[in-house]
Amino acid sequence: MQELTLLQPDDWHVHLRDEDALAMTVPAAAHSFGRSIVMPNLVPPITKLDQARSYYNRIMEHRPAGSDWQPLMVLYLTDMTTPEDIREAKDSGLIFGCKYYPAGATTNSDSGVTNLHGLGDVFAAMQEVGLVLQLHGEVTDSAVDIFDREAVFIERYLGAIAEQFPQLKIILEHVTTEQGINFVRNSSANVAATITPQHLLYNRNDMLVGGMRPHLFCLPILKRDHHQRALIDAATSGDKKFFLGTDSAPHARHAKEAECCSAGCFSHHAPLELYAEVFEQEDAMQHLEAFASLNGPEFYQLPPNTKKVTLQQQEWNLPATINYGSDELVPLAAGQLVRWRCVPAGV
Q1: What are the residues facing 195 on neighbouring strands?
Q2: For residue range 10-59, what is the model confidence (pLDDT) as tens digits?
Q3: pTM over 0.70
Q4: Judging by DSSP bridges, how do beta strands 308-317 and 337-346 pair with one another?
């Protein structure tokens, strides 16, 4: 196969950051995608509808001329979120989901939920109005090993949430474990998962053997190779419960190469190219369109995009660094050779 044309994909999980960062992150998102679910973990977080509207307007100021890319906004759940907030968000037509972060789990999550059991009324309202619950599915109990946080979250919480709210649409964001894959597969059609390129391409050996590679550090953290294998099998299977969510998260180089390394991988320099590497290795290019372009819209009950993109087989080296305002960042797979190149969306 020398060329593959597919319906324009969407990214169902991205961090655009704010202010000066938008000048780089928004055009990067618009290059390959038709829509992007925009994470709300700013400082302060996007917890209210008026904050989401203001953030949406700031994002749109940087959308490239002629582009019809759309940011899909999300509210950040806190202990103070109310059912009225949920109903107002749904009625606005601007909000497409609500994000659960356990307090302290990842970048800018200090305002996250401290008592998951206290959100029952909120989840009931989300189920009623049809807003998607987007879960950062980890516990932050200090007694739980960092590599076990997702599995423990599933055991302690996720099964009970799905059982108590059977009509609530739930996404296990950036799933990283065999337990997560199995839970999603064995749950109802209302439970799905996004999968990142970094968790498909790498495992914890890639990050740790021979010395720490900070630009592979992300949360949830990379896991063992058998978990990576489970993710690859799920992503490339054609199963509509799994779809593209890059979790692309820019950090300046100095923040990644610091003693306290920032968590996140930037992949919007070549997102489809990186996913294509995995699908080609698995002889599953015929399933890439479903994963990238069809499964997510179906879950969110949105129409697929009508424009198309083309992946052409041509070898090229990914950039070693990317300008990030007055700084630079090191993107995922920096400097590595890839076999596919994406032609921007056309009619």
Answers
A1: 244
A2: 999 999 999 999 999 999 999 999 999 999 999 999 999 999 999 999 99
A3: yes
A4: antiparallel
Give me 268's structure tokens.
């919007």
Nearest to 269 by CA among 293, 248, 247, 288: 248
Determine contact, residues 235/201, Cβ cutoff 8 Å.
Answer: no
Residue of 344, 252, 254, 257 whose CA lies nearest to 21: 252
The separation between the first and the last C-alpha atoms of the chain, rounded to the nearest angstrom, is 22
- Catalytic annotation, pick one of 10, 85, 239, 247: 247
pLDDT band at 193 (very low <50, low <70, confident <90, very high): very high
Q: Is 247 a known active-site residue?
A: yes
Question: Number of C-alpha atoms within 13 angstroms, CB side, residue 298?
Answer: 18
Residue 108: is its pLDDT beyond 90?
no
Separation of alpha carbons 8 and 165, rounded Å: 32
CB-CB neighbours of 255 under 10 Å: 17
Q: Which of 156, 90, 83 is closest to 122 using CA atoms?
A: 83
Cβ contact 251:214 at 8 Å: no
Q: How many other β-carbons are positioned within 10 Å of the β-carbon of residue 51? A: 17
pLDDT of residue 111: 74
Decide: 113 and 137 in contact? Cβ < 8 Å: no
Question: How many Å apart are CA 49 and CA 74, to the nearest integer?
Answer: 9
Give dist(CA 217, CA 204) in Å, integer.
Answer: 9
Residue with tokens 């928004």: 26
What CA dihedral angle connects 336, 206, 284 and 177, to 10 degrees?
-150
> Tens of pLDDT along 267-292?
999 999 999 999 999 999 999 999 99
Q: Is 333 left (phi over 0), alpha (psi -120 to 50) or beta?
A: left
235 closest CA partner among 176, 288, 169: 288
Residue 301, classified by CB atoms within 10 Å of its CB into exposed (0-12), middle (13-18) or buried (19+), is exposed
Cα 185 from Cα 191, distance rounded (Å) = 8
Is the previous residue joined to 166 through a cis bond, with omega within 30 degrees of 0?
no
